Amino acid sequence: MNSTLLSTKAKVCSVPACISTLIATGKITTKVAEATSKDVDIAVDAAQKAFDTTWGLNVGGAGRAKMLGKLAQLMEEHQQELSALESLNNGKTFSWAMNADIPIAIETIRYYAGWADKIHGQVQETDEKKLTYSRHEPIGVVGQIIPWNFPLVMMTWKIGPALATGNCIVMKPSEFTPLTALRMCELIQEAGFPPGVFNLLTGYGSTVGAAIASHMKIEKIAFTGSTLVGRKVMEAAAKSNLKNVTLELGGKNANIICNDADLDQAVSWAVHGSYWNHGQACTAGSRIFVQSGIYDEFLAKFTEKSRALKVGDPFSPDSYQGPQVSKNQFDRIMGFIQSGKDQGATVVLGGDRNGTEGYFINPTIFTDTTPDMKIVQEEIFGPVGVVIKFEDEEDVVQQANDSVFGLAAAVFSQNITRALTIAHRLKAGTVWVNCVNQIHPNVPFGGFKQSGIGRELGEYALANYTAVKAVQVNLGYVM
Amino acid sequence: MPAIFSHRFDTPLYTGNVYVQTGLFINGAFVDASSRTTIDIFNPSTGKVITQVSEGTAKDIDLAVAAARNAFNTTWGLKVPGSARGQLLYKLATLMEESLEELAAIEALDNGTAFGVVKGWVVPFSIGLIKYYAGWADKISGQVIETDEGRLTYTRHEPIGVVGQIIPWNAPLLMFAMKIAPALAAGNTVVIKPSELTPLSALRVCSLVQEAGFPPGVLNVVVGYGNTVGSALSSHMNIDKISFTGSTLTGRKIMEAASKSNLKNITLELGGKSPNIIFNDADVDQAVSWACHGIFFAQGQICFAGSRIYVQSGIYDEFLAKFTIRSKAHKIGDPFGVDSYQGPQISSTQTERVMGYIKSGVDQGAKVHLGGQRHGDQDGNFITPTIFTDTRPDMKIVQEEIFGPVSVVIKFEDQEDVIQQANDTIYGLAAAVFTQDISQAFEVGHALKAGTVWVNCYNEVHAAVPFGGFKQSGIGREYGSYALEHYVNVKAMHINIKHKMG
């Protein structure tokens, strides 16, 4: 696996500097090339050229569908390899990668392959002396910046709709986790995508990311990452060429468990909500509100179940949870845990490092919190759950909605009226009832409030990657 | 208590009395501004003050947003079914229809566009927009998405909440209707800032909004300046979305303010320098008529004005001669004059700006083929229809948006070359093609990088047909079903029926 990048013709980058890619035990895996803004310019030119000649509307939807279908097939053939690479680079367990991440990624590409030849505009009735219709054209060259928590899945959420609708891409994966994206470049080439259609630049946010966000020839940018950086991306778009912006940002998601929930199921789902992907999910159910009638029983069972999770080597078959992705993240999460202790919350489980090597953190549960505590307000992005007792439905809906974020939420109740009434009132782009973290390529995903702008997945994502052109043909009006 | 502006019209085209509230419209009532200051409203035809209106500031925005938020949570939003929202919008449209002439008179007085045009088209079209969205209000549907039989997965298209809207002075009533209609139909509450140059028709409509029975706080109108009220709207932490129509320069500031405040959704309708391409086989007489309409309508103060007219060499001389005769024949004068076609530019500032562009054209060596001067009173706001020829692509009058009755006529030979010239701009709002050949019409039309392409016509807009810009002409689409997408928040619901977790 070599250190090259750029267009799907493997080219050596223009600057001979490199980024070291670590795995979560802290040892260096490999080095990849470090791109700079100059490489962004090269990539954009290649993308524009492809858009004007070998992609865009030069290839019909059926042709794009075929290539995306082939890509999905190749990913399936290399499923184990991709899973191993993802696990090695990101630290998630091989089992999760193999059974969840990579299948979701493949399904997403396959889903958008199916859309490629179904991009429809409208014909609007005005009157018989006119023909008025709209075309949903590809935008052109789009920039995409993805994070490190679900590297391959995030890549497919972005490239699926963008390629299906005929755009060309300049993408920056996270400098922490570029390996599966680099491998995908080879599969993309093998699938027959013309050179320049997909371009990958490994580099830092402050150089490559910034260059993409402010590039005058990139007409649209899609970013998934922190709310802080999301603001910078939008500001850069405003100051450059007013490119369209979609953002998927952070969350501090409420998981509300009512007295009449199926308790054992609620416990199992809550564990999944808090600790899946080591808590490194924007959808993590990090604020668990439990109604007083079942609070003690829930807490006891939740603690036991969390305690039983095996933290260890990602390639060991019984590991549930691997290491956090980097030292930075590790320090950050430990900092939040410390703040919880300092601000007076009770540590019911964990609250400490696991082992002495690498970035492993024990599943952690806090109780006895107050709403203003950092661990209740801010996104931790680690295996830390906060359990809060509530009495009143009205009160818990208000507490749940009292956040600058609005990405996801969950409700557990067996009563149809209670479950749906609460669920509909939650200010979040995704609400789960009697489950958490369920993702499907055909169901939209995105944030209310400061959790984002726009929706990914489903038919909804296509709107992010099309430029609507209204054409009006005069058949008889005389001026 | 804010004053009521009353005016007696005694003109060849309209006689009557009009009464317009001059306060801020907040929480269902007309109120004085917090600052107790006022803004002078000028008649662009005479330069004289018509009346004063209350001047809103950031404090009034806070009050309006609070009222809008309260209404959203109690008497609007999802508390009121779509059919009820539709009925109220329809009632408003009906009341506007009953006051059609009066609204047209107020608009022509305030904005300067000829009364005949405002009465015959602008007001009816604005009413049509409101009726169109009244019809959508009970048809805002999400999806039910097949996953598997152990789940129910569906989406809700919920109103976003409190939306901020900022509109310009060039077509005030139309802009007002275009913004509030889809926002209200989808269940949002609105705080809207009309232009401080042209607030009167919006204020008159507020009285009709009251009469129609909209709950207080659903629609709030705060007149004020961009750098106070506009800025407060775009950076407000309790406004969930902002929609802006105006200059590209200000559009950038709105987007920046959104990014620095609460990451509110934005849609922008900005400037244009739209090409109008006329081929040898066009119906020349029709092309001339549409080209005139394209650049001189509303004194050229239209974001999608066909300001760059490309004429193929085979018909160039004939086109130019006829275009000149036609343009010269436009009657310029008082909007209430019997045959007036073209009124004044909106203000002395705008007039000077347009005259500045004309001067730059002359300075850079273009030829003034027609006009290029003020009309009548040299201190007034009337400008003669102006045609420049013999330009170069790098001239300011060819590159920049003039926003006045100034056209540039450019000869071309080659189809591929004219497409490239037409697309060679940071803008991408609209474009037109005149040809009778079906292949040429669509080949060229589809190749133009613009959000609207007209074939054998110009300036045609319809409530059902999307409108918006490519490139730096904007973000998002208005009109049609497309506008609704920008006024809803999609919530995905996943209901677990049977799946067990281990």
UniProtKB/TrEMBL annotation, chain A:
Keyword flag DNA repair: no
Catalytic site: E248
InterPro entries given in the database record: Ald_DH/histidinol_DH, Ald_DH_C, Ald_DH_CS_CYS, Ald_DH_CS_GLU, Ald_DH_N, Aldehyde_DH_dom
This protein's UniProt keywords: Oxidoreductase
GO biological process, one term: acetate biosynthetic process
Any GO molecular function: aldehyde dehydrogenase [NAD(P)+] activity
Domain Aldehyde dehydrogenase, first and last residues per copy: 24-471
PROSITE patterns: ALDEHYDE_DEHYDR_CYS, ALDEHYDE_DEHYDR_GLU
Domain of life: Eukaryota
Keyword ATP-binding tagged: no
Alphabetical list of PANTHER family matching this protein: ALDEHYDE DEHYDROGENASE-RELATED
Protein family per UniProt: Belongs to the aldehyde dehydrogenase family.
Protein name as it appears in the record: Aldehyde dehydrogenase
Species of the source: Lentinula edodes (Shiitake mushroom)
